[in-house]
Amino acid sequence: MRRVREALAKSAPFLPPTPDFSSRLHQEPSEDQSIEFAQAFIRNSGLFVYCENEEDFFDQLYALKREQNIQHLHVWEPNVQRILHHAGIEFTSTEEDFLQKAQASLTTCEALITRTGSILVSSANAGGRRLSIYPETHMVVAKASQLVPDIKDGLQHIRNKYQDNFPSMVSLVSGPSRTADIEKTLVMGAHGPKQLVLFLIDDLPH
Prior knowledge:
By secondary structure, this protein is an alpha/beta fold. It has six helices and eleven strands. It has a five-stranded parallel beta sheet with strand order 1-11-6-3-2, sandwiched between helices. Strand 9 (about 180) and strand 10 form a beta hairpin. Helix 1 runs parallel beside helix 2 (about 30-45).
């Protein structure tokens, strides 16, 4: 994934490359796909954090919390709570804390859409709907193996995963919330988080 870091050090092209309509729709995640996603995610005003492994994720999360003075990180997914507790990273998980101190949240996701640089989330996730909407900062931890080429592939992944119990809500998160309804002035965080952070853990074979 060294190429990911090198590519992100360069300016992303304003327009995406011409699509190859002869390529297969379903592809295995690759280093090139990681680069394409990261560049599209950054164009969407997201903060992309590459993590070499899970331990590196803990270090990067701890550093970001300290840098942005995040005192109250809300986590509701038991599997994420377990790994954060093991790493000694503080978080809150009660309804009362969420209602009073909704500063930042950390969730997982269903898939990462390479073409649009979007994060695919659903209500089936243990984090529910609110953690990705109310706090000013929404953090997501995902793995490179969750990359899929396009939206259709992400939806098919959810259908295969949940079968007849399809989630009641499926949504694409493409950067922080924004609006330009008032005098065509771009305002961040108008209807949701002002900041979207993705920690991408490299779990691809080398």
